[in-house]
Specification:
- Helix content is 41%, strand content 11%.
- It is built from 17 helices and 13 strands.
- It is globular, with a radius of gyration of 22 Å.
């Protein structure tokens, strides 16, 4: 665990990055303090009445990011079903009208469970109740808190193998099945969704998140392993991604692979259909992985970073992390990463300032992890050896309550831990 009283490096970094915005916010808060006090005084009876009537106002932190849009409501609704929160008569998803929704088909998934507010004016009216914790809940607190562990992993572990809360609409299913056929995937074939994060989706803030990116070329061996077992690989993402070279001689490099991300057939409904019906999801630290978790689809998560997020959300996920090296090229032991602020870094600049080199997972490491998942799903995975168990327990013991993945019950790739047991 981190040393006591250690400051969170991300708070300092983002406060400095948003210095002017914070200054304006503090001035606004100072000026508006008397009015805020008066607002709370006047609205308290109304808030109490709404709470007594079972109303719950739920705020999605980033509705323009699909990971937040699908996992934050899933977190709170599953808590209610599990009996951890009182049932609400009406739940309202507060989606600011001035922010674009990441996927309208995702919103349709939640309509049977809650009213969805898209009106900017209505949102501002309801936002007046933001200071009443019994009435208003913020999704970011359960998915990506500023400090501490992600509660969503705990909820998914408790949820277990129950059916997902959400169901695809008939329209999503029809569009998804038709898109599969149009892409040339055989009707009865199984497939894996592949998503490798790049910087094109949100270039304005990629200078912060670039450390999470990876090269899709290192996943080709995994696609060949999937094809060798009769499966297909559907590359997910957005049109800004590097196109895959699938023609001619490259067809052997990427067999049974569809570059759906760069296809004209791409649609929001097909995005949901593929992620929710895949045999498993092959991804990394990106929001699209959350779609699979919401539907109970297991994931192979590679190139995981920050190390605070070293394990997947779901209990059936298998993950492996990126490695870190000092300026002299020596790899940093996992214990040093997790027991210092390095394991908490959430910005590329923090790694640069510490003079650390980020090393992506190799094609071999990715393929080995894919094989483990395929063997598990096909009932061919051997029980872990005593050595495997000890290696995992050693790795898991390094994760403390300050790390995002503390509540996760996901596993770490066996071959990866064997390769790097010298770092444990």
């Amino acid at each position: 665990m981190s040393p006591p009283n250690q400051e969170n490096p991300n708070i300092n970094y983002f406060n400095h990055l948003n210095k002017r915005k914070l200054q304006r916010r503090r001035i606004k808060k100072f000026i508006g303090r008397p009015f805020g006090w008066l607002r709370r005084l006047l609205l308290r009876p109304v808030a109490s009445l709404l709470t007594s009537r079972g109303l719950l106002l739920f705020v999605v932190s980033n509705p323009h990011r699909i990971g937040h849009l699908i996992s934050e409501p899933d977190w709170i609704l599953k808590q209610i079903v599990l009996g951890e929160r009182a049932p609400a008569n009406k739940i309202m998803l507060l989606q600011p009208g001035h922010k674009k929704s990441a996927n309208k088909a995702v919103l349709d998934l939640w309509r049977p469970h809650m009213d969805i507010v898209t009106s900017k004016w209505f949102y501002r009216c309801l936002n007046l109740f933001r200071d009443f914790p019994d009435l208003t809940i913020y999704g970011a607190d359960g998915i990506l808190p500023t400090e501490g562990a992600t509660d969503y992993s705990r909820v998914l572990a408790k949820w277990g193998d129950r059916d997902p809360l959400v169901k695809l609409t008939e329209q999503d299913i029809d569009i998804g099945q038709q898109t599969l056929a149009d892409l040339g995937v055989p009707q009865d074939a199984w497939f894996v969704c592949l998503h490798v994060r790049e910087g094109g989706y949100s270039p304005k803030d990629d200078f912060i998140h670039a450390y999470r990116n990876a090269s899709v070329d290192t996943y080709a061996a995994a696609a060949r392993e999937i094809a060798a077992r009769g499966g297909w690989t559907i590359r997910m993402g957005d049109p800004t991604m590097t196109p895959l070279a699938l023609e001619g001689a490259n067809a052997k490099t990427w067999p049974n692979t569809i570059d759906y991300a760069c296809s004209k057939l791409k649609s929001e409904s097909a995005d949901l259909f593929f992620c929710s019906t895949a045999k498993f999801f092959l991804g990394t630290v990106s929001g699209l992985t959350n779609v699979a978790s919401t539907f109970g689809v297991p994931s192979v998560l590679v190139n995981m970073i920050p190390h605070s997020d070293a394990l997947g959300y779901g209990p059936e996920d298998i993950a492996i992390t990126k490695l870190l090296a000092r300026a002299d090229g020596k790899l940093i032991p996992f214990a040093e990463i997790f027991q210092t602020e390095i394991g908490l870094y959430r910005a590329a600049d923090l790694f640069k300032a510490a003079n650390l080199t980020i090393i992506d997972n190799s094609a071999e490491e990715i393929s080995e992890t894919i094989v483990e998942m395929l063997n598990r799903l096909d009932g061919m995975l051997d029980p872990p050896t005593t050595r495997d168990t000890k290696l995992y327990e050693c790795f898991r013991s390094l994760i403390g309550a300050e790390h995002l993945c503390y509540h996760s019950e996901g596993s770490v790739g066996r071959a990866f831990l064997r390769r790097h047991q010298n770092l444990l």
